[in-house]
Amino acid sequence: MNDALSLSKYMYETIAGGFTNQLPISSVCSARCIFCSNHMNPFPIYREGFRALDDIKKGVALLNPNAEEIRMGDSLPGRISEGEALLHPEILTVLKLVREKSPKSVIQVNTNGTMLTTEFIDSLEQFKPMRFTISYHSDNPEHWCTVFNLDMEKYKTARNCFFQLMQRAFDVQAVIVPLPNLVGYEDLENTIKNLRCYTNYVMVYPPGYSKMADSELIKTLESDPGELSLFLSRMRKKYKINLNNLSDLLMPLRFFPYDFMLRTYNGKFKNVLWMFSSAAHNRAKKILKQYGPSVPNNHYAVNVRNYTYGGNINSAGLLMVSDFDKALQKALRKYSKENIKIDLVLLPKMAFDRYGDDLTTKNYSELSKKYGMPVWLG
């Protein structure tokens, strides 16, 4: 095939994800974080290095010129290892291309902050508005160096960049991966307290580990979800800061199924099987039960365990067709014994790209073929 007609992995990922505000440019990272999923992934993730400028120009052409923000650090759906965009040798040229395409969009960059020296920040002034989401898992120098596997000079740059960015009126957010077994809750509180000086928004991602992790790493990464949730609740009130933990099992689930339930009834389906991740199952099951009396057909919830990753991975976005297959086999046997004939299966949309493929490129339509019934994404 003519090379001009072929897609790079970066381009395919962007198109498959359906994003018009995503521009991945690097899968190179300067850190070696102890919780990095690249070392625990059960199937290969592409490491594409720095994206070629000619291919970046093709990606820029797909950007929405009126997008609220252009995301430089994401590489979704997730088949390419995410890297440090600011390491790209032609980053200033790339930013110029983005700004010309989308003059008013906020350019959002995920970074560990180690590239953000005073001089480099000065060179970024021309590309405002920009937002930096900085991974910052401990304000303690020794802990920071341990988590990132970087030296003290890198810590100093990352620590100082918050003040430098704020001083120049850049938008700053932060990301914390809480590691209480390594740094302790006192350290976590001190980190949150200091971040509050520069931002009121922090994303919290409890660390995940797969079946590939060894016992020592698991000890380091494990935490009690309930204990962490209560801790974050206290910190929100104490420091008046938005600590956004989307995987918090004690928080209300953003799931509103009523309209979709009616749609299944209008489609003449009598017994509908909803498949949920382990993270969502208990809360989603209660919500389905609440709405159940409001619709004429029947709705059942099934917990789908993640056998592909194993470990403590329980989010819907990392479930594979094979995981749904195992859960579906078991569920159909159970309901058959109860004389319930399932006639529609619903899968979480976030587990698949716009082509219906999971991260291993298996398509959800395989389930429909295997079990001879409709399978929808919802």
Describe the fold and architecture:
With 378 residues, the protein is α/β, with parallel strands linked by helices. It has 2 domains: 242 residues, TIM Barrel (Alpha-Beta Barrel); 120 residues, Rossmann fold (3-Layer(aba) Sandwich), CATH 3.40.50. Helix content is 37%, strand content 13%. The strands form 2 sheets. Strands 1-2-3-4-5-6 form a 6-stranded parallel β-sheet, covered by helices on one side. Helix 12 links the parallel strand 7 and strand 8. Helix 2 runs parallel beside helix 3 and helix 5 crosses helix 6. It is globular and about 70 Å long. The chain starts with 8 loop residues before the first helix and ends with a strand. The relative contact order is 0.09.
Report the uncertain regions.
Answer: none
Using only C-alpha atoms, the radius of gyration works out to: 22 Å
Number of strands: 10
The number of distinct helices, counting runs of at least 4 residues, comes to 14
Q: Roughly what fraction of the amino acids lie in strands?
A: 5-15%
Helix share, percent? 25-40%
How far is the first residue's CA from the last residue's CA?
Answer: 36 Å
Whole-number count of domains? 2
Q: According to CATH, what is the topology of the largest domain?
A: TIM Barrel
CATH superfamily descriptor of the largest domain: Aldolase class I
The main sheet comes to:
6 strands, parallel
Would you identify the CATH architecture of the largest domain? Alpha-Beta Barrel
Class from secondary-structure proportions: alpha/beta
The H/E string reads HHEHEHEHHEHHEHHEHEHEHEHE
What average pLDDT do the residues reach?
95
The outline comes out as: globular
Q: What is the CATH class of the largest domain?
A: Alpha Beta
